Amino acid sequence: MVAKGQGDGTVSAWVRAASLLQVEYKNAQGRVYWYHPVERKSVWDKPNELKSARERAMDTTPWREYKSGDRSYYVNKETKESTWKIPADLQAFLDTIPDEPAPATAARPSKSVSPALSPATPPRAATPTHEAVGTAALRQQTSSVTRHATPVYATQEEAEAAFQSLLHRKNVNASSTWEQTLREIITEPLYKALRTLAERKAVFHRYVDELKAHQAARREEKSAELRPKMLRAVPDLKPYASYATFKKKLVTHPLWSELEDEEQAVSIFEAIRQDLREKEAARQKARGEQRRAQFLALLQKIEIRPTTRWKDVQHLAAVADMPLTEQLRVFEDHMARIEADERDQQQGYGHSRQDRKIRDAFRSLLEERIKEGTLHARSTWASFFPMIREDARLLDMTRISSGSSAQDLFYDALDALEREFAGYMRTVQTSMREHQTLAREAADWDAWKETVQESDIIRALPEHTLRALFDECVYQSERDTRDMRRRTERRLRHYADDLRYAFRHVEPPLDIHASFEEVLPCIRMLPEYMALERAGDDEKNTTARAAWDRYVRRQTEKLADAMYAPGRSRTDYTDLDDAGDERKRKEPPQFPDPRAVRRRTEYET
């Protein structure tokens, strides 16, 4: 028992003593390793606590000493040079280090132990010595103190919080590494707040990542605060200025001392220069548009015919403050409009205007049908034409000899409807996935409608559009079911083909007069039957039985042919069912969707 006032000091003393207790062992191959009885860990490298002053000094050089039998050799870890003799520069450096004895290690047991399979407690010597007895007592008392000092937490979150408080107390920053931090915290009681090294390392990296994120956010906030101040400090900065100019103007300003480093200054300069360039580009664009508008106004004030040439209006160039290339571009655009107007007049402007009125009237007819719901995304010209056959606006379209026809305008409207319908379908499918709602049959209409109308876009749609969306969902569900059933049937057909082929090679041969139940024990261990068995308990017996019946029928036919024509078989039975790996089966016929003649189009928006 220790006194109350001396408890903490005694615990620290025992912990420090236990940290220096390293026991040296050799494995079966003769390689030396060290075991820590308190930490219950073994390492290949000699611990720093046991190294002499010369050994610790060698760690600061690129040279490392290794053993080959009883001889020592030296390797330079940077140049990869190796030598049997100690290098002269290393010898001269080590001569400056005063000799001191290495810390004593615990008694090494004579029995070799593999480091990978080392026991939790090192093996004891056959004859206990005074040193071994003292070591055992020290280990027993240290273990007792360590177990008493090890903190215990109710939850994993509390343990992680305690370990993070240790990192905070040790001033771990964003640039700290795990190896550096481990050396500083391994002797702390809170180091064992977490049970495994992996947990400690994960919490350390998460703590460092949070520090980095906090520093980045604080750095960005500071940059955002300094950016407008620096811009006001250099109002004459040009968009083409360099960082050297920017630094020269601000290096003596008090704002420059608020920067953390050069990298932050460069980032602020790049942001300021990008902003200046964007403002300059917008100003130049607005100025160019203004000059083009002014020059166009000058051209419109004079009489220009399609035969007018540039030299006839070149005198206006002296008045307009703009480059010659811009003037030529504005003049060419203006001449193109004049020539187009002249062509319209020559071809009969009145006739073209009447055609436009007829097309506008037919477009209004299409819009009316869309509002009524008789024209929708799944309509076809063949189904829509009978509805408008007697409409006068359609009859007027037949008198137009040029331009878009009634069918062209119909497909233009249909394309717009299909794009709109595709957008609605994406919204509906998203709602169905979120609420796990299915639309497989007409009975699902009420639940489906209640789910999809949670979206404001779908809620505003008319009833006929909702019906069309529901029908499309039901169609897609039925299509997916058909595809899955077809894939399952195809897979079972392949399994049956493989099983029939395997029947021919069973030893002893199967009796074709036996029933399926009688041959089942003989074929149960066939890989082909096991593959069929994995396809599902409901289908395996039916498919395997059908494969056996077909095999029996084929073999019976072969025997009948052999009876009537012993010299030559009437039929070549090397067909698709009995062929080898090269056999192929045709795909089932693809039937078009009977609901629509026009091809469905998927729009990517």
TrEMBL record:
Cross-referenced Gene3D superfamilies: 2.20.70.10, FF domain
Coiled coil recorded as keyword: yes
Coiled-coil ranges from the UniProt annotation: 259-289
Renumbered residue ranges of the record's region Disordered: 99-132, 562-605
Keyword Glycosyltransferase attached: no
Ranges where the FF domain occurs: 156-210, 354-416
Primary location recorded for the protein, binned into one broad class: nucleus
GO biological process, one term: mRNA cis splicing, via spliceosome
SMART domains: FF, WW
Residue ranges, compositional bias (Low complexity): 115-132
Top-level taxon: Eukaryota
Record GO terms (molecular function): RNA binding
Bias (Basic and acidic residues): 595-605
InterPro entries: FF_domain, FF_domain_sf, Prp40-like, WW_dom, WW_dom_sf
Domain WW: 61-89
Cellular location(s): Nucleus
Key words of the record: Coiled coil, mRNA processing, mRNA splicing, Nucleus, Repeat
Recorded GO CC terms: U1 snRNP; U2-type prespliceosome
PANTHER family (alphabetical): PRE-MRNA-PROCESSING PROTEIN PRP40, PRP40 PRE-MRNA PROCESSING FACTOR 40 HOMOLOG A (YEAST)
Protein name from the UniProt record: U1 snRNP protein
Lineage: Eukaryota, Fungi, Dikarya, Basidiomycota, Ustilaginomycotina
